[in-house]
Design goal:
The structure holds 2 protein chains of 2 kinds.
Chain A: E1 3-6, E2 10-14, E3 19-21, E4 23-26, E5 33-38, E6 44-50, E7 56-58, E8 64-68, E9 73-78, E10 87-94, E11 101-103, E12 107-112
Parallel strand pairs in A: 2-12
Antiparallel strand pairs in A: 1-4, 3-9, 5-6, 5-10, 7-8, 8-9, 10-11, 10-12
Chain B: E1 4-7, E2 10-13, E3 19-25, E4 31-37, E5 43-49, E6 56-57, E7 65-67, E8 73-78, E9 87-94, E10 101-102, E11 106-110
Parallel strand pairs in B: 2-11
Antiparallel strand pairs in B: 1-3, 3-8, 4-5, 4-9, 5-6, 7-8, 9-10, 9-11
The chains are: A mainly beta, B mainly beta.
Chain lengths: 113, 111
């Protein structure tokens, strides 16, 4: 069965510092990969996705993630975080067709001034 | 531009009571899903539908039923609520490939 592992449950970081949220998945077949962000008391919003093509994908607010097939990873990075980036981040992978998603347990990013 | 709308947003049930959560999407998506979110466990798929009149079990279907009588609506029912069903429930919709769009969630407490 496919699974997604987010290696850090919480990541504290100071404002303007770089951050990396790690995600590894297990799959023997081609997959689509996603990062979603959840702000407090809200639903999940798509941050970025990898479907095909370039292995480096970017979001409009400065996040990027790189699909690494050999290491089955899809780590999320941002070179300089803002207070407003404080949220929970979920890595997800498609599983078994019909665009069903398997989620990681989430990483809570806390940006401090 | 509503996207995916869930009702209600909050609900408190007593053990053994029943209720239905409603999800509506206005994007003409074929696929719809119900997930539950529990602390430290991410989101887990309860049931899903690949088109009007179809439903299928996900990872954690026990204790829940669903119906998709109209393409835009996907209902999640709890026939006899249990404290273990205390959770935040999210509905989502998508096309065959690409991102899923999520509702704002329903926070359910079973006492």
């Amino acid at each position: 069965a496919q699974s997604v592992t987010q290696l850090d449950s919480q990541v504290p970081v100071f404002e303007e510092a770089p951050v990396e949220l790690r995600c590894n998945y297990s799959s023997s077949v081609s997959v689509y990969l996603f990062w979603y962000v959840q702000y407090p008391n809200q639903g999940l919003q798509l941050l970025l996705k990898y479907l095909s093509g370039s292995t480096l994908v970017e979001s409009i607010n400065g996040f990027e993630a790189e699909f690494n097939k050999s290491q089955t990873s899809f780590h999320l990075r941002k070179p300089s975080v803002h207070i407003s980036d404080t949220a929970e981040y979920f890595c997800a992978v498609t599983s078994g067709g019909y665009n069903k998603l398997i989620f990681g347990a989430g990483t809570r990013l806390a940006v401090h001034p | 531009n509503a996207g995916v709308t869930q009702t209600p947003k909050f609900r408190v049930l007593k053990t053994g009571q029943s209720m239905t959560l409603l999800c509506a999407q206005d994007m003409n998506h074929e696929y719809m899903y119900w997930y539950r979110q529990d602390p430290g466990m991410g989101l887990r798929l309860i049931h899903y539908s690949v088109g009007e009149g179809t439903t299928a079990k996900g990872e954690v279907p026990d204790g829940y039923n669903v119906s998709r009588l109209k393409k835009q609506n996907f209902l999640l029912g709890l026939e006899s609520a249990a404290p273990s069903q205390t959770s935040v429930y999210f509905c989502a919709s998508s096309e065959d490939v690409g991102a899923a769009f999520f509702g704002q969630g329903t926070r359910l407490t079973v006492v």
